[in-house]
Design goal:
two-stranded parallel ribbon, 2 domains, binds iron/sulfur cluster, Rossmann fold, 6 helices, Alpha-Beta Plaits, alpha/beta, 238 residues, four-stranded mixed sheet
Length: 238
């Protein structure tokens, strides 16, 4: 078994190609209801299948996965994969305290069941397994529009983390974990690159020096905290 992790920028340079004798399990997070727009170009260009069976997985932060799974199915199908089993897995939100403890035992049980059904489908297929139907639009055009606590649309695309310089000891961990390589290694309080609000730098900072103070984003966080406390369902398709 080979595990290809393309979270970090240096891992998104080499192209991967798979044969029809391999099985690929391909996962991406959901951002604003779709594949993250900064990752989509890599999904489109880095991965090539040759009638390669694929189990496709999207994770989402206890809100909704909307079109991420269907978009992933479309993009991989275009690139020579046969997505024949799929799952949208509810997880803890990246920047809101919802979905804590997810995926949990019930999610795990569903994932194990999905794996068993994927194996069965592969065994029973004469040549290549039939493509799976999933919920959502195959070629979505729009992303989810975030709203603030007052229900009005908010835009925090340009928000970036700030750093409490009194706490920062320049350990460099935030620089290493940023999936877009956006944090200046010589000055970690400087974020010259694009920020996708993944919060990896905030969560991994051992000195709790990083945080967001963008008002629109904080208003959105309050809205999500209030409206998405219910247990979102993990869904599987096979
Ligand atoms: S992880 Fe925290 S302490 Fe380390 S460089 Fe980044 S902001 Fe500073
Ligand atoms: S939240 Fe932090 S780690 Fe994530 S993209 Fe923005 S700067 Fe990078």
């Amino acid at each position: 078994m080979v595990c290809d992790d393309f979270t970090l920028p240096q891992e998104r340079s080499a192209r991967r190609e798979y044969t029809d004798k391999e099985l690929v399990v391909f996962g991406v997070p959901t951002y604003a209801g779709r594949i993250p727009n900064k990752i989509l170009p890599f999904v489109k260009t880095l991965f090539k299948g040759n009638n390669t069976p694929a189990v496709i997985i999207t994770t989402f932060g206890n809100r909704a996965y909307e079109n991420s799974l269907s978009e992933l199915k479309y993009e991989l199908s275009e690139n020579g994969f046969i997505p024949f089993a799929a799952g949208a897995i509810a997880c803890q939100h990246s920047f809101v305290d919802i979905g804590l403890g997810r995926p949990d035992e019930e999610d795990d049980r569903l994932l194990r069941f999905l794996a068993s059904q994927a194996c069965r489908k592969l065994r029973e297929a004469k040549e290549i397994p039939e493509s799976v139907e999933v919920k959502g639009e195959l070629k979505p055009e729009k992303y989810y529009t975030p709203t603030g606590f007052d229900g009005k649309p908010v835009n925090f695309l340009k928000a970036k983390p700030v750093t409490d310089k009194a706490l920062c000891d320049h350990c460099g961990i935030c620089v290493e974990v940023c999936p877009l390589g956006s944090i200046d290694s010589s000055d970690p309080s400087n974020v010259p690159g694009i920020c996708i609000k993944c919060h990896a730098c905030v969560k991994k900072c051992p000195r709790h020096a990083k945080y967001f103070n963008d008002e629109a984003m904080l208003s959105h966080i309050r809205m999500i905290e209030q409206s998405c406390q219910r247990r979102a369902l993990t869904e599987i398709f096979y």
